[in-house]
Amino acid sequence: MDIQILGTGCARCQRLEQLTRDAAAALGLRIEVAHVRDPAEIMKYPVVGTPALVINGTVKAAGRIPSPSELADWLRQA
């Protein structure tokens, strides 16, 4: 499973990473999370705001922090 957090590394980006890790742990999944901080790389995705969550190449959330239940659903489906 390819998971990326798009953003500059701000507190919201870090919170999104932690919530994603927590959701994966609750599901018994081992994941690797990559941070994309380079603005040129972030612009390759169809996002208007950060933080953004990309799972297996698909943007799942942008400009907001999704709920734990949303994260769990997306991870289950991936």
Would you give an account of this structure?
- The radius of gyration is 11 Å and the shape is globular.
- It has a 4-stranded mixed beta sheet with strand order 2-1-3-4.
- The longest helix has 17 residues, at 11-27.
- It has 78 residues and is an alpha+beta fold.
- The protein is built from 3 helices and 4 strands; from the N terminus they run βαβαββα.
- The chain has a single domain (2-77), classed as Glutaredoxin (3-Layer(aba) Sandwich).
- The protein is 40% helix and 24% strand.
- A hairpin with a 2-residue loop joins strand 3 (52-55) and strand 4 (58-62).
**Span of the ends, CA to CA:** 7 Å
Could you say how many structural domains there are in total?
1
Beta-strand proportion: 15-25%
Largest sheet: 4 strands, mixed
CATH superfamily descriptor:
Glutaredoxin
Could you give the order of the helices and strands? Answer: EHEHEEH
- Pairing-aware structural class of the strands and helices? alpha+beta
Please give the structural blueprint.
Elements: E1 2-6, H1 11-27, E2 32-36, H2 39-42, E3 52-55, E4 58-62, H3 68-77
Parallel strand pairs: 1-2
Antiparallel strand pairs: 1-3, 3-4
